[in-house]
């Protein structure tokens, strides 16, 4: 399904759209750093007036999505019904999880799945190894597409002009000394990923972190997700990773793709 | 944080609250059975008029939470930001996951964590074994509290009158021939769980399924979550489960509780 501009009779500036957007912004203002917030903190973080923030917090409390002791506000687990509606609406995950678990068993490294959201990747599934040094990224967390193996794999499913538009939508940060920060240079790697059907990213996101990804493709031939294996340079080299893990990774992505029914 | 009734100047019937509630209802109408819906389907599932459903879908589309090909609507991964806001706002999970992984390693059965939401438990973390027969419950999924070990453990953290109120809020369904369906009988098990600090539920949720849970308690002494181990009667008996797994389960819950910092 390709995104399409909404019809002209509803604009981002509409009062109705605005108030709904602000409600969702209030939800998103809660985080690990701000698990419980006062009214003033919510107002500051969202740019709302105190009166506006109060109205939205009380609305969320009335609906059971927020609880409060009168001073501090916190989200309730009812919030998960919203994200969970999305996850459960993607039939691929029931299919993907057991196949990904077999891959973890085989390669002894963590395996994840992500989808593209603008210029970011969003994690939708993760199967971790029992190793102590492990990737702590959970479901719903985001990373930029340009410097991650799943990101480049997902970008490879888009036309070049769309890839460049996304790469130019925000400055490409040099997260390590290896990170490619020129959109044209990243595009070349995306094109390589498209040609070969996989990609490996060597410490461009984080020093010491290696990652290799392959696409999950639906019956219409559209890339809908990516699967990756992540490793550590102190345990494996890019060459070793490619030799021992590329074939099982691609086979896993192929199996998930072939089992998708109309996704 | 104990839930408190919202202030009197905002009622569930308010226009603003209503419109926000309807927006969230539209999000929740998408599921594994209805991953892509037409305008008419959304209207039918939510009880909205076509015009009302259209206005909300276009709002969600404008905000990037819904995409459409013009006819079918689907949620986008941006929705996961909402659930992620909740999960990342609970500091316990970073602490809990490695401890739960050690428990899986030790007992070779799946381990989960859940919190109470009304009369339901909501899964917030799951560490599965690599066995083929495994519990397919993911994060955000719900089960009733009355017939689950985590549910009874969480209810044990509430006063008896509150437990009875929740147990009487909906009929207790006989999910198997073993399920207790009398609120007073369930309360007796909840009281037992409170006295002994753990509970075991034998095939009351599902034939063949055993489950044993212990509470996670914060510094204020409040039960904030439960941890469980689930097993299958064809691999273990309740007595074996108790002899071999109860001590490690309670130790895991104790470790998570002791590492909580102000949660």
CATH topology of the largest domain in chain A: Beta-Lactamase
Which class of the largest domain in chain A in CATH terms?
Alpha Beta
Structural class of chain A: alpha+beta
What is the share of helical residues of chain A? Answer: 40-55%
**Total domain modules of chain A:** 2
Largest sheet of chain A: 6 strands, antiparallel
Q: Low-confidence runs of chain A (pLDDT<50, min 5 residues)? A: 1-8, 132-136
Specify which chain pair forms the largest interface: A-B, 83 and 82 residues
Order of helices and strands of chain A: HEHHEEHHEEEHHHEEEH
Q: What is the percentage of strand-forming residues of chain A? A: 15-25%
Net shape of chain A = globular
CATH architecture descriptor name of the largest domain in chain A: 2-Layer Sandwich
* CATH homology superfamily of the largest domain in chain A: GAF domain
Q: Distance N terminus to C terminus of chain A?
A: 10 Å
Q: How would you characterize this protein structure?
A:
Two copies of one chain form a homodimer. With 263 residues, chain A is of the alpha+beta class. The first copy, chain A, has two domains: 15-77, Arc Repressor Mutant, subunit A (Orthogonal Bundle); 84-259, GAF domain (Beta-Lactamase), CATH 3.30.450.40. Chain A contains nine helices and nine strands. A six-stranded antiparallel sheet of chain A has the order 6-5-4-9-8-7, with helices on both faces. In chain A, strands 1-3-2 form a three-stranded antiparallel sheet. In chain A, a hairpin with a 6-residue loop joins β7 and β8. In chain A, α2 (39-46) packs across α3 (50-62) and α5 runs antiparallel to α9 (238-259). The interface between A and B is large, with 83 and 82 residues. Chains A, B: Pfam families: HTH_IclR (PF09339), IclR_C (PF01614). Chains A, B: Keywords: DNA-binding, Transcription, Transcription regulation. Chains A, B: This is Helix-turn-helix domain-containing protein.
